[in-house]
Amino acid sequence: MTGPLRIETSGSVQVWTIDLPDVGNAITGTDIIAGFEAAVDAANSDTAINVVILTGQGKIFSAGGNVKEMADRQGMFGLDAIDQRYAYVDGIQRIPRALGRLEVPLIAAVNGAAIGAGCDLAAMCDIRIASERASFAESFVQIGLIPGDGGTWFIQRAIGYERAAELTFTGDRIDAATALDWGLVSRVVPHDELLPEARALAERIAKNPAHCLRMAKRLMQESRTGALESTLAMAAAMQPLAHRDPEHERRIDRWRTR
């Protein structure tokens, strides 16, 4: 599928590529926002898809907002304050809501700079792998803004409050090695090996039963904010479904005959 979010499917793995290199793979346009929503809904309804990889075309993962449009007061940036508020709700905030309902694991393959909302976009993913050329900046304050896309929620859950506060309050850029040290990414790889490494990880995930993966992700998400009792109750409700999945039976039978 072509468009601002290019989608390629290989077996049970999909690769979503933000394909807007002329504007730094900005994610504030209406087409890219709708693209994310459509991609999530399609993946959720296709149980043959087990894992998604998200990356950027060219040298940048995502520069977040379109700063030129901000400077020129174009689009939503030309609206008055009240209308802008609703433009955020009905605009870029649709992306975290969409990714929040994605049922399959999402791997960010961060190929370059992830700036502002682009940094937040990476943090919205379940797993992050970075090219050695990647960098990250929660840079909103440096242009007199705040994270308007949920970044304050996602970043501190990825790296803890203190590190997130440092990133948010300074707006400083950190390199891939620092991101690894802080736990923002799980590994850093040579640039040319980024997508092969992400695909290899995706394949290791994708070989597991589809419904099991989707339930495990839902349980992981609940465990981030839910109480222990509600998490246990959800696990107790889901586990019998896993036990009765024919794939579980096949794998248990293989285990018996080892």
Verbal overview:
The protein is an alpha/beta fold and 258 residues long. 49% of the residues lie in helices and 17% in strands. The chain is built from 12 helices and 10 strands. It has helices at 30-45, 67-72, 81-89, 94-100, 117-123, 151-159, 161-170, 176-182, 194-206, 210-225, 228-243, 246-256, and strands spanning 5-10, 13-18, 51-56, 60-62, 106-110, 113-115, 127-131, 135-137, 173-175, 187-189. The strands form 2 sheets. Strands 1-2-3-5-7-10 form a 6-stranded mixed beta sheet, sandwiched between helices. α1 links the parallel β2 and β3. α6 (151-159) packs across α7 and α10 (210-225) packs antiparallel against α11 (228-243). The protein is globular. The protein starts with a strand and ends with a helix. The model has no long low-confidence stretch (mean pLDDT 93).
List keywords for this structure.
single chain; 258 residues; alpha/beta; 6-stranded mixed beta sheet; 4-stranded mixed beta sheet; 10 strands
